[in-house]
Each structure stands twice: as structure tokens, then as C-alpha cells.
Amino acid sequence: MKRLVILASVLALGFLGACASMESAEKKAEATPAAKPAEKKKLPPSGSPFTVYFKNNSPDMTEKSHSDFFDILQKVGTYKVKEVTVRIYSDLTGSPAYNKKLAEKRGAYFQEALKDAGAKKINIDAIGAEDPVVDKKGKVDANRRAVIIFAKDKK
What we know:
3 helices
């Protein structure tokens, strides 16, 4: 009989502990704020640079840069952008001629995408490896970039 009482007591305590754990978990779930949705990029202020980065030896942007640029493209028509200047750079690897050609390929994408988004005037400057932000000893992927400057209508 003693064993039965002890067994019943252990089971009851286990059940109470489980209920308390569930209640604690529910309170934690209620107290934890819901994750905020990813913030969409806003069009930078007129004249402010917006930089995107490219994959190595490719005209394709990195995944994050492509996503950020797509968010910006959606706002070009809404904000009545009158002019966009895009300066495209490459890293220091490869010949100057190759880097210039790669920058031009990257520029062709921007030309088409910005035109389709409603930009009125687009200036593409395919610079290549000139004007690096870091030298060969640094993190050269920072050199594979496009700097985009928007000029909005003042109306």
C-alpha cells in the first residue's frame, strides 16, 4: 500500500511539474515579440550614394545586393527619379581590358533595369579596376561594386 501511495505521489508531482512547464512556456511565447518582417529599402536621398556588390568574375550581384537593388527599383517610378548615375568598378585581379569589359557587362544590366523601372536619364560609367577602395592585400571583394546615385525631380 505504501508503494502505491508513493507511486501516486510521484505521478502527481510529475503531472504538476509538466503543467507548470507548459504554463511557463505559454507565458514565454506570449512575452516574446513576433519577428519583424524584413525592412524594405527606401530610395536614398537625392545625391546620396547607394552601393551594391558583385560576385567574383561575374556580372551578377551578390544575393543581398540583388535583393536591396530590387527593393530600390520598385521605388524609382514612385519617387519620380529624373536622373541616375551608376559607377561600376571591378577588383584588381585580371587585366585592365578584362576588368573594363566586365564593368560594361554589369552596366548593361543597370541600364536596362533602371530604364524599365522608369528612370528618365541614366548615366553608366564603367570604370573597371581604377579607384579601388582596398588594395590587393585587403578584402578585394569590396572593390567589385556599383555606386548608384539618384537625383529626384524637385516637383
